[in-house]
Amino acid sequence: MKSLDHMPSLEAGAATTNPITSSDENLDHFIMRDGVAYAGTHLIIDLWGASHLDEIPRMEKAFLDCVKECGATLLHIHMHHFTPNGGISGVAVLAESHISVHTWPERDYAAFDVFMCGDAKPELAVDILKKAFNPSRVEVGENLRGRMDDV
Questions:
Q1: Which backbone phi and psi does 4 adopt, to 5 degrees?
Q2: According to UniProt, where does the site described as Cleavage (non-hydrolytic) lie (predicted)?
């Protein structure tokens, strides 16, 4: 296990020297919080009892609102509409990672992944998705990706 004692204390999202390569040329966007360095936060968001899960314009707007509110950088959005049930699979590719969705409108259920690195704040996406799809129940799981204390 690699010790983190030699790493500088940084604010969230500040670029630093990659502790694995120790090269000044390899700046990354790892985050240092509460003594833990990691690549980014990956939220798994399940919406139950949700509505409008077959509406691509609403889904695209929700993604765009998430990108803006979370402070991320949009590179590309792609949505696919399934027939006959109207489910949507989609992804927003971000400079900071991604937002993805798979919906089952016939079950009023949507599965979102929101993974963001650096200064982005993926936790802000939860309220945006609640407002857009009005679920009766929301479950959120969090995983700190690339934790350096596990190296």
A1: -100, 0
A2: 96-97
Mark whether 117 is an active-site residue: yes
CA-angle at 66, arms to 64 and 70, nearest 5°? 125
* Residue indicated by tokens 């609102």: 65
Would you call 4 helix, strand, or coil by DSSP? coil
d(CA 142, CA 50): 21
Burial 42-62 (b: 16+ CB within 10 A, else e): bbebebeebbebbbeeebbeb
Quote the pTM value: 0.79
Choose, from 78, 80, 97, 136, the residue flagged as catalytic: 97
Amino acid at 129: L
pLDDT digits (tens, 9 = 90+) for 42-60: 999 999 999 999 999 999 9
Could you tell me if 41 and 140 are in contact, meaning their C-beta atoms sit under 8 angstroms apart? no
